[in-house]
Design brief:
Elements: H1 9-16, E1 18-27, H2 32-45, E2 56-62, E3 66-75, H3 81-98, E4 103-104, H4 106-114
Length: about 120
């Protein structure tokens, strides 16, 4: 312990913000620019996400039937991180439903592959 450096993420979050992120899967027939816009909209709607730090999206991985995207957003209050994640997931689901876009999950993909 004496030779390693310890980072206090709670203190760092208060000063710089802490990045939270979550990954979703979206069908290839949805333009990635639209996915990026919707994910950023959902993050900006989320209580607890810092309004002065722009959320950003990473295109993560190509799966068989969908692409993975990762939304990243900055928070300060690490004490309610679970609630912020919950609000973010809630907002993601709602903005995609409003846009008529289905979220893909491994279960949906595996059932599609097996023909169930």
């Amino acid at each position: 312990m004496l030779s390693s450096q310890t980072t206090n993420f709670s203190a760092s979050a208060e000063t710089y913000g802490l990045i939270i992120h979550t990954t979703i899967g979206i069908s290839y027939d949805v333009p990635n620019t639209q996915v990026h816009e919707l994910l950023i909209k959902a993050a900006r709607m989320t209580e607890g996400v810092l309004p002065d730090r722009d959320p950003f999206v990473l295109d993560k991985k190509f799966e068989d039937l969908y692409q993975q995207y990762e939304i990243n957003a900055y928070i300060k209050d690490i004490n309610v991180i679970s609630k912020i994640y919950s609000r973010l997931h809630h907002n993601i689901q709602n903005v995609f439903i409003e846009a008529g876009i289905e979220l893909q999950t491994p279960l949906v993909v595996s059932e599609t592959k097996s023909g169930k």
